[in-house]
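A student in our group prepared the protein record below, which I am reviewing. Here is the record exactly as it was handed to me.
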Amino acid sequence: MARKKKMTYETEKDSFPMNLRALMWEKNITQTELAREVGCTRQTISLYTTGQSVPDINTLSRMAETLGVSTDKLLGKAECGIPENEEIRKITGLDEASIEALKKLFKTKDESHKANQKLTALNHVIKNIYIDDFMNNLWKYLFLEFELSNGDMEKKIIYSAGCHNDMRNEEMSFYFDKISMSKIFLINIEEDLFKMKSQLTATNQKGS
């Protein structure tokens, strides 16, 4: 008994057609344009975008080349379009946009004093991520308030510094009425940035 063919509303949700449609939209390439570059008909591309047909390996390779991505990205086996970036993503967890931004910054560091300073600052933050308080306070500012603000929005739980781990939650916290935690974290971030600037200035003075 022959297997029943899947309907379009089922196949169009598969990885390949979804990635193909997304990449075509991102690259602003029409079905007609892609068909011309790949060497097939527009109707064939239409079947690919709905998952009603799958290209052979040669056609897939030409499609990936035209769209500027790897075949793995097109098939949904990789998150990054550039193979090199996929390897970096697996090691660092950075997404492709971040990786490309860092590459661009590195390429321009010798031509731009500003780019070189940005790279120096990034290196300092990353290598001291477990030492300095900057990233920890930034994390608190961006995310922690939402976890601790449930209930009475007029009261924010602030964990007091230097509390012991074996203390009860009630003992670890105290309340400020009508004071947003974000303001406190911003003050901490400002202090951390001042410390960072002093450290970078001292490092530059030693190197000069």
About this structure: The beta strands are 155-159, 173-177.
